Each structure stands twice: as C-alpha cells, then as structure tokens.
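Pipeline run #58 for the internal structure catalog. This entry was flagged by the ingest filter as a single-chain record with no existing model, so it goes straight to prediction. Upstream metadata was stripped on purpose; only the residue string is passed forward. Reviewer on rotation: M.T. Logging verbosity set to normal.
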Amino acid sequence: MSGAVSPGRPALERTVGALLCAGTVAVLVGGCGAPSARVDGARAAGERFERALASGDHEAACRLLAPETGEQLEQDEGKACREALGAEKLPTAGAVRTTEVYGRQAMLRLVGDTLFLSQFSGGWKVVAAGCTPKGEQQPYQCVLKGG
C-alpha cells in the first residue's frame, strides 16, 4: 500500500504544517528583535527623560533631547531649551508599557505618553515626546519634535 494515506493523515499534516509555520514566524519575529542592551538603553534614556521632566530638571531633560529636537524647540520658542521645555505642555507619563527598537530608532509607549528616540554616538536621545496616535495618515502627533 505504498502511497496510501490514512484518513487521519491530512489533518495531521495540516496541524504539523500550522505548527511549523507558527514556529517559523516566531523565529523570524524573534530574530528581528533588537538585542536586549539596545532595548534597555532606549528604555533607560526615555525613563531618565521622563524623570527629569517630572522633577522639573529641564536642563537634564534638554541633555536627553536629540540635537535637532532641542534646536527646533529653541527656535520655536525663542528661548534656551531649559526655559522653552518648561513652557511646553508635555503630559505626565507613568511607567513604560512597551519598548520597540528597530535599528537605531525606538518607540516607548508609557502610561500617558509615547516617546520616539534615536541612537546617537553619545547614546539614546529623545526625538519626539508628548505623542498621541492620530490615525493612518499621520500616526502620531507630537507636542515636542525635531525639524
């Protein structure tokens, strides 16, 4: 009976095929993930930024901004970064819910805020803050962002 298929075999093949497909997807998704050091670095920079804002240490928060973002803020407000940042209406953020890193870019979703960061030679810097999703054409609208 070579070549004969038992009645239960097609279901078994579908089940095994589905498991292999799911396993392949899991490996591919896991393989695309950022190393934990980059994820931890982005998360730590975002948390430092939020702590500096919460404590009113705008000088420290400005040091954590990407150069273009700090320059744009100063240009828009006509003030030094620390003074301009204090005048911004950034939301009070809570704990980090998720951190996603793609290459040298990261998105931190916190309770009450979303931050976008980029990795520079001196570490992770905040590119945009006070971001909320606004739909498909413009996924996020940010209070603070670079040019």
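catalog note: The longest helix spans residues 9-32.
catalog note: The mean pLDDT is 80.
status: ready for reviewer M.T.
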